[in-house]
Amino acid sequence: xxxxxxxxxxxxxxxxxxxxxxxxxxxxxxxxxxxxxxxxxxxxxxxxxxxxxxxxxxxxxxxxxxxxxxxxxxxxxxxxxxxxxxxxxxxxxxxxxxxxxxxxxxxxxxxxxxxxxxxxxxxxxxxxxxxxxxxxxxxxxxxxxxxxxxxxxxxxxxxxxxxxxxxxxxxxxxxxxxxxxxxxxxxxxxxxxxxxxxxxxxxxxxxxxxxxxxxxxxxxx
Length: 221
Ligand code: SF4
Ligand code: SF4
Ligand code: SF4
Known about the structure:
22% of the residues lie in helices and 17% in strands. The chain is built from five helices and eight strands, in the order αααβββαββαβββ.
């Protein structure tokens, strides 16, 4: 095999790996732009025209690159890389010609999911004061608040815990983008998406009603 052929094979393998990564992410890590309904509804309506991508002034939306995923060419947002800025006029929605994005006129209408916090890795739950996600939130004190608690096991450190109000959280992902831990301790989930409960159990589908609870049971709030 010639050197050029080997180079082409390696390049093809790299593209394939990237495509698979995107295909994986398309179902589990990426967000749809504001105004998308269920994934089924979105896939049926989106004609991959890219108008929402052009309309986004922050370049938060990109087209999924893949040779294998049915999501190829559809728009997505990677909150960790560049979250939605919740523009006051939400310009990505009215340009959609097919209604794949619809019924969002003001930022508060946005419902891309809701944030969940990993209490095992969020440093606020370890007694350190962070509040970066709290201060990054466009809906500070509405979508996210700080719960001050005495740490019963540690009289020297109190806990300033971020708490999500999933009814008002828009899932914009700015908290995810700004989270200071290497692997973000906060992420966005939405109906029908799997979430990572812990390393041992892997990815499991978790209904919305099981994600929160006044006692904070489980890893995710
Ligand atoms: S609301 Fe603004 S920042 Fe968010 S995706 Fe739409 S155009 Fe981009
Ligand atoms: S504007 Fe609508 S149809 Fe066009 S790519 Fe965006 S979501 Fe799909
Ligand atoms: S996703 Fe994060 S930053 Fe956006 S509204 Fe919800 S808590 Fe606030």
